[in-house]
Amino acid sequence: MQKGRLLMKWIVGLGNPGPAYEKTRHNVGFMALDELASRHGFTFNQSKCKSVIAEGIINGQKAVLMKPMTYMNLSGEAVRAYMDYYKVHLDDMIVVYDDLDTAVGRIRLRYQGSAGGHNGIKSIIQHTGTQSFNRVRMGISRPTPGRAVVDYVLGTFPKQEQEPLQQMIHSTCDALEHSLSHTFEQTMQRFNG
């Protein structure tokens, strides 16, 4: 069997750097990438393009896991820097992030759409000039009426949400693994059920 060019997928998890943000709702993208890295024995040991990066092989496919260190609102700077430096394609990218319009514990896969008020996605759209890129939205539910969204997304998950949170991190990793050996459309059909 002739070995062709090793394809590469890059998975960008959105979040904020630093221990203060580690367990917050806004950081579920980082949590999912940490779990995926630990499943496959990858280490986030490279610092480049305004990100920390782990890489290795998943399902015979080279995968780069990337956590922008720019803070959420400037995530697009890291994505752009990586694209320009490595000449990678946007259609090989998957962005993983928190979504207020999806219930905690659920994930939604999409391949295009507006930022929907998410500043990290807004920044990526701004820096790439397109709304067409693959994404896995991890549900964090909406805050109760009267609670400021900013305080909510920078808050941690209460005890009763820990189990759905863990399940959601696992299904996100399952979807990401699946997407490495299937088209994103097939992955959507399977995981948006």
UniProtKB/TrEMBL annotation:
Subunit description: Monomer.
Function: Catalyzes the release of premature peptidyl moieties from peptidyl-tRNA molecules trapped in stalled 50S ribosomal subunits, and thus maintains levels of free tRNAs and 50S ribosomes. Hydrolyzes ribosome-free peptidyl-tRNAs (with 1 or more amino acids incorporated), which drop off the ribosome during protein synthesis, or as a result of ribosome stalling.
Record has RNA-binding as a keyword: yes
Subcellular location: Cytoplasm
Positions annotated to bind tRNA: Y21, Y71, N73, N119
GO cellular component: cytoplasm
Enzyme nomenclature, EC number: 3.1.1.29
SUPFAM superfamilies: Peptidyl-tRNA hydrolase-like (SSF53178)
Family named by the database record: Belongs to the PTH family.
Organism of provenance: Paenibacillus algicola
UniProt-listed InterPro entries: Pept_tRNA_hydro, Pept_tRNA_hydro_CS, Pept_tRNA_hydro_sf
Site positions per UniProt: Stabilizes the basic form of H active site to accept a proton: D98
Active site: H26 (proton acceptor)
Annotated PROSITE patterns: PEPT_TRNA_HYDROL_1, PEPT_TRNA_HYDROL_2
Site positions for Discriminates between blocked and unblocked aminoacyl-tRNA: N16
Catalysed reactions listed for this entry: an N-acyl-L-alpha-aminoacyl-tRNA + H2O = an N-acyl-L-amino acid + a tRNA + H(+)
Key words, A-Z: Cytoplasm, Hydrolase, RNA-binding, tRNA-binding
PANTHER family reported for this sequence: PEPTIDYL-TRNA HYDROLASE (PTHR17224)
Domain of life: Bacteria
Designated name of the protein: Peptidyl-tRNA hydrolase
Pfam families documented for this protein: Pept_tRNA_hydro
GO biological process: protein quality control for misfolded or incompletely synthesized proteins; rescue of stalled ribosome
Cited NCBIfam families: pth
Gene Ontology molecular functions: peptidyl-tRNA hydrolase activity; tRNA binding
